[in-house]
Predict the 3D structure of the following.
Amino acid sequence: MAKNVLSKFRIRKGEVFQAPLENALGRLVTPFEEFIHRQSSSGLLLMACAVIALLIANSPWQEAYKHILHLPVSYNFGDWSLSMSFHHWINDGLMAVFFLLVGLELKREFLVGELSELKHAVLPVMAAIGGMVVPAVIYATLNGGTEAGRGWGIPMATDIAFAVGCIAILGNRVPRAVVTFLVALAIVDDLGAILVIAIWYTESVNMTALVAAIALVVLLWLLKFAGVRRSPAYIFVGILLWYALYVTGVHATLAGVITAMAIPARPKYDPVAFSTFVKDIIRSFDRCFRPGDKIIANDALRARVSALDNGIHLVQSPLQRMETRLHTPVAFIIVPIFALANAGIPVDSFTSAEAVFNPLTMGVIAGLVFGKLIGIVGATWIGWKLGLGSLPKGATFHHIIGVALLGGIGFTMSIFIAELAFAGREEMLIQAKAGVLLASLIAGIAGFMVLRRAPIDLSKEGSGELE
């Protein structure tokens, strides 16, 4: 991005250094960068990893696959030791980074995004609530009073990467405002899933560790009020908080969300102050410059370049910088690794009638496919009829139905909650994962087809007409 902006300015004087292979490698790297930043790319990679996990789990390598996931990984420092299986490090450790990104996105949306204005936020919030409550009720109706009843939170979640990936493939056929509606809905959905994990999937609490965790949360906010804007300080305290929550018994991944809430969202400089600062630095730089000078050999020039670099960091909010930096590793490393570690289940979980037509699997499928559809469309329709908000610009209820179906793609968060709900219950966990994968497939195809056939009329703003 910065390279493209700089290329618009013609450098009239001075030397611009070009490495021998810079232009050739630039032509190779740029398409890859464009692929990485496309919204659909992470969803496609996630889908590929899920398929690979399924193939491995049903191949001669399945035992090696299970062995690797159960390998113990330990960290030792003197007498202190922390040991978990490789699988648990992925689900409890790497996913804490995923939740850190989710927390940053939530905070940004509520401060400056679609959820910051009441008139834009009402319908997505209502849709998200409907899309959480109805699936949970459907699941509980089929499994209430049984051991499988613990999984009622599984069909509540929406996988934002898969859902946005599916809708992005359609390109301009779907109004941009509809994509924004889906993202806002999914973000509120993530918040609901986080609360469910924190409140209902915590078995027991170590009070001593809980006091330490509270003290670390206070420390995070003290860093914020002290004006600390460098992310390493927050990350260090966040890691300590992760460990405290792990010992507490509260799911440790919540440390990511709590840390995100403390990251400052306001920059040091506003645009006017930054412009003045840059002009002053440039004038000072020009005064210190002498023909033939190199920055590497001129302390005065180097000091001003360093000051300019600091200013560039201070005009961006720490929240914005961290979210930008985390997006690529989370979308293209952490979530795919999670898929590889958790999507591998036996094929007979899909092929036999007993494996699919049991209350647990059917509860997950019915909740994600029909529950999301009824809950999201119903809540949106009620809010629209009551005049609480308008539909996205250019959208009809055809689009809302398509979005509701895509909301039934529960992959990442649903599997994560299933791991918590049925820890130590291998057969139930496999049934739950089978339901999540089948429901995500059905919902994804159905949502894609509905949106593909939806009318394209950008002149209407939230008419709601079903054409």
User: Anything to note?
Assistant: Residues 94 and 334 are 6 Å apart (CA to CA). The longest strand covers residues 72-77. The mean pLDDT is 82. Residues 41-75+116-201+327-452 form a domain with the Na+/H+ antiporter like fold fold (CATH 1.20.1530.10).
